[in-house]
Amino acid sequence: xxxxxxxxxxxxxxxxxxxxxxxxxxxxxxxxxxxxxxxxxxxxxxxxxxxxxxxxxxxxxxxxxxxxxxxxxxxxxxxxxxxxxxxxxxxxxxxxxxxxxxxxxxxxxxxxxxxxxxxxxxxxxxxxxxxxxxxxxxxxxxxxxxxxxxxxxxxxxxxxxxxxxxxxxxxxxxxxxxxxxxxxxxxxxxxxxxxxxxxxxxxxxxxxxxxxxxxxxxxxxxxxxxxxxxxxxxxxxxxxxxxxxxxxxxxxxxx
Length: 255
Ligand SMILES: NC(=O)c1ccc[n+]([C@@H]2O[C@H](COP(=O)([O-])OP(=O)(O)OC[C@H]3O[C@@H](n4cnc5c(N)ncnc54)[C@H](OP(=O)(O)O)[C@@H]3O)[C@@H](O)[C@H]2O)c1
What we know:
It is a single chain. The chain is of the alpha/beta class. The protein has helices at 19-30, 42-54, 69-83, 108-134, 156-176, 194-200, 205-208, 219-230, and strands at residues 10-14, 34-39, 59-63, 88-91, 138-143, 181-188, 241-244. It has a single domain (10-244), classed as Rossmann fold (3-Layer(aba) Sandwich). 44% of the residues lie in helices and 15% in strands. Strands 3-2-1-4-5-6-7 form a seven-stranded parallel β-sheet, sandwiched between helices. Strand 5 (138-143), helix 5 (156-176) and strand 6 form a beta-alpha-beta unit. Helix 1 (19-30) packs parallel to helix 2 (42-54) and helix 3 packs parallel to helix 4. Residues 14-21, 39-41, 44, 64-67, 92-95, 116, 143, 145, 188, 190-191, 193-196 line the site of NADP nicotinamide-adenine-dinucleotide phosphate.
């Protein structure tokens, strides 16, 4: 794909202070987009924005808690006031909550996980649609997971939230196709980020065992898929889940 595939586009990335979101913000900017970065951590978010600016591209960080609907509205407005438009929305912020056996679960964990992983994505998209329509169309990419396509023991709450992301993505792809707005998910396998570190305590052996390629992925490998879904190279793809997980969703690994 050409290095200026997104020249003139404006992209918004939530969860841009770390991991997949940070790598994707950098990749979107490298492909020519102006980028609005969102997360709660000011220092980390500003550092990613500064990295992009120092490479000669345009970026602003807007401190945002995605569980607050007013802050999401302000985020979309910032894209329009800073860069004049919104073309690409990458709704990526997420939390693993507290994985473990369901009998140990504190029900408040359901709220934390669903508020961040599902409700915030629905709210973000609600605010993004009018801005995308003003441009005659655009792209929405939501971060799901291979756990949005397959179950995994001890991750029931998280998996339920990511299955919900798949459901809302496909439904909105149907609803928005006539607006020329494509809606897809990127569905990462285990990716080396602070989230994977927290979820596994640093021991990824259990996850590696279900990955035919036998290794976790990198944030940059997800960012490459995000660029594909954001660009015209995927112009006839909507309502699709793109697993990027070393073959994890292909079937079963035996002996
Ligand atoms: N790593 C994996 O193995 C993996 C696999 C499949 C899917 N995913 C998904 O990929 C996405 C990114 O995760 P990651 O692995 O890159 O994890 P990460 O490094 O922990 O990053 C998570 C990002 O989400 C942001 N975030 C969390 N809650 C937020 C809130 N309430 N408001 C605003 N931002 C919030 C964090 O920023 P602040 O803390 O600064 O707010 C951070 O930028 C998530 O949706 C995750 O579920 C990850």
